Amino acid sequence: MKGLLIKDFKLMKMQKNFFIMIVVISFVVSLLTEDATFMLGFITFITSLFTISTISYDEFDNGNAFLFTLPIDRKKYAVEKYVFGMLLGGCSLFLAIILAVILNLIEKSDTISNILISAVMLLPFVFLLVSIMIPFQLKFGSEKGRIAISAALGIVFAISFILGELAAILGINIAEVINRISLLGAGGLFIVIFIISMIVVLFSMKISISVMNKKEF
Questions:
Q1: Within 13 Å and on the Cβ side, how many CA atoms surround 106?
Q2: For residue 141, how many C-alpha atoms fall within 13 Å in the half-sphere facing its CB?
Q3: Rounded CA gap, 115 and 94, in Å?
Q4: 189: helix, coil or strand?
Q5: What percent of the chain has pLDDT over 70?
Q6: pLDDT at residue 84 in the model
Q7: What value, to the nearest 5°, has the Cα angle with vertex 101 and ends 97 and 103?
């Protein structure tokens, strides 16, 4: 797996100008809007999407056929994409925190504690994003994968709407449920979200391994 991680980070290095541009844009927007937390989400989510790009690079010009002549197996390949995505998300979030703190020292637009709380709450959602996108990318490839992801997100929103309507019919007060969840506090809420995200990651990883085992190169 170490070799696969090195490969993906070298691919990332080839796109260094793009990442520098993302950092500059996010810093300027945060400076103009006086919102130091903006860059937390922007940098982290955009950078995490590069995990999907590495799969496209691997598939380009039938590259997987060569890749799997090396001493790696399909399970290890699938798991590495999740490890890489989490490392990328974590490192980019750490960079965004440093930039947000620097901006806060310049403008005093937010408290450092709010920046740290926002960052901690954001991390599980980054893991969820990666976990949702990787199986679709492995299964459908670059072009069809984007369509499949869009369709899946549409289905999620549709289900959310239906559940909301069903809750109204059954007399369930969504606002009250949210208020009760908020009583857990920031720490309790983070633990709940983190546990859910890890369950989704493991389930998604199992799907990705199954997809890779069935693929033909």
A1: 14
A2: 11
A3: 11
A4: helix
A5: 77
A6: 92
A7: 115
Give the pTM: 0.79
Assigned token pair, 76? 């290890």
Directed axis angle between helix 2-14 and helix 74-107, to 10°? 50
Q: Which two tokens stand for residue 70?
A: 């090396």
Contacts for 59 with CB less than 8 Å, ≥ 6 apart: 141, 142
- Separation of alpha carbons 189 and 181, rounded Å: 7
Mean pLDDT of the chain: 79
CA 99 to chain centre: 20
Quote the crossing angle between the two packed helices 38-48 and 16-33, to the nearest 10°: 160
Question: Rounded to whole angstroms, how far apart are CA atoms 133 and 84?
Answer: 13
| Three-state SS annotation for 154-192 | HHHHHHHHHHHHHHHHCCCCHHHHHHHHHCCHHHHHHHH
